Amino acid sequence: MGIVPGRATVYTVTMPSTAETLPPASPLKLVCSELWGGNRPVHRRVELPGLRGVLYSQPCGGGRGGDVHYLSVCGSGVFSRLCLADVAGHGETVAAISGELHRHMRRAMNSLDQRKVLRDLNANLEALGLHAMTTAAAVTYYPPSRSLSFSYAGHPPGWVFRRATNVWNQLTLAETRGTTRLTNAPMGIEADADFTRQTIKAEQGDRFLLVTDGVLEAPDANGSLFGVENVERVLRANAGGTCDDIARALLAALTSHCGRETLTHDDVTFLVTEIVPGPKGSHFWLALKNRLLRPRGNSGDLAVALAL
Q1: Helix (H, G, I), strand (E, B), or coil: what is residue 100?
Q2: Exposure class string for 103-116: b at 16+ Cβ within 10 A, else e
Q3: Does 253 or 132 have the greater pLDDT score?
Q4: How many whole angstroms separate alpha carbon 7 and alpha carbon 74?
Q5: Which residues contact 271 (CB under 8 A, 6 or more apart)?
Q6: pTM exceeding the 0.85 threshold for the entire prediction
Q7: Are 73 and 79 contacting, i.e. CB atoms less than 8 angstroms apart?
Q8: Are strands 67-73 and 80-87 parallel, antiparallel or unpaired?
Q9: What is the tens place of the pLDDT at every residue in 116-146?
Q10: Which residue from 233, 190, 181, 189 is spatially nearest to 209, judged by alpha carbons?
Q11: Which of 17, 24, 143, 255 makes a 20 to 30 Å CA pair with 60?
C-alpha cells in the first residue's frame, strides 16, 4: 500500500484495524496523490471529488497479498476512478500483476470509459506473459453530471444504495450480445475479452459497496461461507447509517462469522462510498487550475480535461 505522488486529490485518515470507534475527521490533506496498494493492512477514510467513504483491506498472510486497490482522480481533478482487484495466488506473480495494474491505471486515468481501461489492461497482461487469473471491479464517477458507472472483470457485483428508496440492490451487468468473445470475464484468460458497463445517475446520499471474494468466502467453523445473504443482511440493518457504520458492521459480522478477530482465510477488501457534493464552481476552471498547478513530470492532455 502506498500514497504515491500523482494526479489525484485524496484526503485520508488512518483508522484502527478493528471494528472499534473511528477517530474524528482529520485536517490532513494530501494534494496530488493517489491511494493504491495491497500488501499491507489498510483501514481508512477516503475522499475524492463527489465521493466519501471507507476502505478496508487485510492481506491474509502479510507480505504480498492477492487483493489490490486503486483510488485516484483524473489529471483535471474532475472525475474519480476506483478499482478493486483480486489476483489468484500470492507471491511474485501477484506483485508483478499488481505493479502492472498500478502503472496501467495511472496511464489510463484520463480515460472516462473504464471498459477500454480493462480491455487494454487485459491485453497488456497477456503481452507481458502474466497469466494469473485476475478479477477486477472498476468504477468511474463524474460529479458534474452525477454519472456513476460500473464495470466488472469476473469480479463479484457491487451493491448500490438509493437514498430515495432506502434500498440496497446488487448491480449486475448484461453481457455483450452478438459476439463470440468472452464478456466481463476475469483477466488473464482471453486476451481479447470484452467488458460492459452500467451507468446510473447518482443523487447525493446514494452509496455503493465493492468487495472481493475474501468477504463472500469467509468461512465459519463448519465451513459455511459468509455469502451474499450476510452482506445484504448487514446492508439492510445499516441502511440509515453512515459509511463508517456500514464498515464497522460488516467487519464485525465477518469476524463474528469466522469466530476470530483476525481474518486469515484469504485477503479481505471492501470499499463503501457515499455520493457527496462535488467540487464547487465551474468544472472547466477547476480542470484548468489543476492542470496548470499539477507537479512537473505528470503527463496528460489538457484538451481532454477541458472537454470534460
Answers
A1: helix
A2: ebbbebbbebebbe
A3: 253
A4: 6
A5: 46, 53, 54, 55, 56, 69, 71, 82, 84, 209, 210, 211
A6: no
A7: yes
A8: antiparallel
A9: 888 888 888 877 776 677 899 999 999 989 9
A10: 233
A11: 24
The dihedral region occupied by 276, where left means phi > 0, alpha psi between -120 and 50, and beta the remainder, is: beta
- Region for 184 from its dihedrals, namely left if φ exceeds 0, alpha if ψ lies in -120 to 50, beta otherwise: left
Ordered structural domains, the chain, with CATH: 2-307 (3.60.40.10)
**HSE value, Cβ hemisphere, 13 Å, CA-based, for 229:** 4
As a whole number of angstroms, the distance between CA 305 and CA 129 comes to 33
Which residues neighbour 21 within 8 Å (Cβ) at sequence distance 6 or greater? Answer: none
Tell me the pLDDT tens digit for each residue of 169-184: 999 887 666 666 789 9
Q: What is the CA radius of gyration of the chain?
A: 18
Q: How far apart are the first and last CA of the chain?
A: 30
Residue with cell 465551474: 282
Q: If DSSP codes are grouped into helix, strand and coil, which group holds residue 22?
A: coil
Residue 45 and residue 47: Cα distance in Å, rounded?
7
- Farthest CA pair distance, the chain: 58
Distance between CA atoms of residues 206 and 187, nearest Å: 30
Looking at the DSSP assignment, which residues form a beta bridge with residue 147?
A: 142, 201
Question: How many CB atoms within 10 Å of residue 201?
Answer: 9
- CA dihedral sign, ordered 219, 223, 227, 231: negative
| 46, 10 Cβ separation under 8 angstroms | yes
List, as one string, the DSSP characters of 42-81. EEEEEEETTEEEEEEEE-SSSSS-SEEEEEEE-TTSS-EE
